[in-house]
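anyone else get weird line breaks when pasting these?? whatever heres mine. first is seq + tokens for prot A
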Amino acid sequence: MKKLYFLFVPLALFGCKSNPSVVTEAITDSSSKKIEISYKVSESEVSDFLKYLSSDELEGRETGTKGIEKAAAFLEDFLKKNNIEPYFASYRDTLTNFKSPAYNIVGVLAGTDPVLKKEFVVLSAHYDHIGIEKKKQADVINNGANDDASGVTAVAQLAKYFATTKSNKRSILIVFFAGEEKGLLGSKSLVPKLKKRDFNLYTQLNIEMIGVPMKRDFLAYVTGFDKSNMAQKINEYTGKNTIGFLPKEAEYKLFYRSDNYSFFEGFGKPCQSISTFDFENFEFYHHVSDEFKVMNIPHITAFVQELLPAVTQIAITPTEEITMN
């Protein structure tokens, strides 16, 4: 997450095999649907993916460095292995607002419905972090496991789900942003390119810092809770208290601090970030101790699993049910 300046201290910020026959619908009444998901997110795949992306080998993934170049190649390879096509000529979308070569990684899953495929759902997370610590100390690598390798891992698993099931009637754009920590540069660079293509955006779900659970009666929160009915719709689709309201999110204006904001500003559609960082459950924001070993892999796996009915409904509803307030 783009750097937060706190108003107080010491608070710190922000193995199952998949089954391709996975989605069945049970109509409960004329106005609602309950989607049963048999697809199982693999805990071992979540672990392996996150472990590499937050490893010392990638040197904290600062935009413009050799470390993030390795991360970019890793993400390209993941999309290719899962038969997710590049949206542009290649998976690499070069940032127009950064001095050295830097890339968003962008893939697309075409919708299966001849009409709805013209509409897009964006699933995104930023894969950059803040790199090497300048002051001399025992550990100098800011690995960024929670911020935001955890979000990238979740988006990758959602992408694999749709690539496996082909259950999306709308098209899905998978985006791994660079430059978020430099001021949302990756999303700011991408939005004008999409608008030039008359990109028909329905909604964006950006995933940010979901590596540890909250001790609350809901799984996660969305930034900008009152800007749309996204929270209510996700809960309707999952049949659970998946999304709640976090007052600290509004206090710190987190809606404006991640890549959802660039899309909201550019398209005026529901574009929000989903997070489980609640200002109480993680003390290593922008810290060298934000490492794989402090991530809760069962929680991340369960987080993705719980979202599957919601992202499926978002991708298949005949009308755009998520709307601005």
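and prot B, same format (seq, then tokens)
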Amino acid sequence: MKNLTDEEIMQAVADGQLKKLSILFDRYHVRIYNFFNKMVQNKMVSEDLTQEVFIKVLKYRASYNNGNFTSWLYTIARNIFSSYYQKQKKERANVIEDDVLHSGEKLYTETNDEALEHLQNSLLKLNTTDRELIVMHKLQEIKYEQIAEIIGSSENAVKVKAHRALKKLKEIYFQSSKTIGNTINE
């Protein structure tokens, strides 16, 4: 069973072998959670949205049509995030400020913590579309071709949009760095 592709497993789920969904859950739940967590910076919301993705996979299993499973799954995740974002739009600033995930695990050295926090804050200043592209490509390591399929665009258009989003992120990051540096120097 370990040798089956995601597409073969999903087709089996679509054909009624529901227990096989646990294999796909094991393969993808951390990636989907990380996608949401990079988008909303909230552990509980990320867990809830991740759960919702797999509920939708189960609910809409019959609509799976042998395409690329990862693209199909991220399309569902993206739609769920979009719905969540629309519902939370007015409260978004409060959610980000009040419920930021504080992990006890240190993935980076202490000297990098401040830079990482600055990068996370800069990422949150991007519009949702740009942030989503950066998270999918740079942090989730999804190929441009799959992102194009997920968002319904061409691969070249995705490359251009991702490049522009990265440029905006760099501008925000370094502009904020200058402001922080000027404040410290005053």
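btw re prot B: Residues 1-102 form a domain with the Rna Polymerase Sigma Factor; Chain: A fold (CATH 1.10.1740.10). The chain is about 75% helix and 0% strand.
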